[in-house]
Write a structure and sequence with these properties.
By secondary structure, the protein is α+β, with helices and mostly antiparallel strands. The chain is about 30% helix and about 45% strand. It contains four helices and six strands; from the N terminus they run αααββαββββ. β5 and β6 form a beta hairpin.
Length: about 120
């Protein structure tokens, strides 16, 4: 899996940063794996349902969009990709990691973790 092949996974990760996508439970549902879990920047453990609900409640404006730098992708297995990057949003920076799994030809986020910088 080369850089071009990582592009769909990166595109989906960046979509989750968009306020329009985040506010849509339907769109987020399509991007999250059924077994999704998150360890937030606060250290809190989030379930899939809690994540969808929390994102839907966020403000829907461009000021809520995150800036992403240092994006790197690593293929762990043919259907498993690890993305790492730094996000900046609302004055907060975090180092993030996302584990994406391909099932039935569809890449979905399995695990996400944020660590404050």
């Amino acid at each position: 899996m080369g850089a071009d092949e990582l592009a769909p996974v990166i595109e989906r990760e960046l979509a989750l940063m968009s306020p329009v996508v985040r506010r849509s439970a339907t769109l987020v549902d399509e991007l999250l794996d059924p077994e999704f879990r998150e360890i937030g920047v606060s250290g809190r453990f989030w379930t899939r349902a809690e994540t969808i609900q929390a994102l839907a409640a966020e403000p829907n404006d461009a000021s809520c969009a995150a800036e992403v730098t240092d994006m790197e992708g690593t293929v762990l297995e043919p259907n498993l990709v690890l993305l790492t990057y730094v996000s900046s949003r609302g004055g907060r920076r975090a180092r993030r990691s996302s584990l994406w799994r391909c099932s039935d030809g569809n890449w979905r986020l399995l695990l996400h973790q944020g660590t404050p910088i």
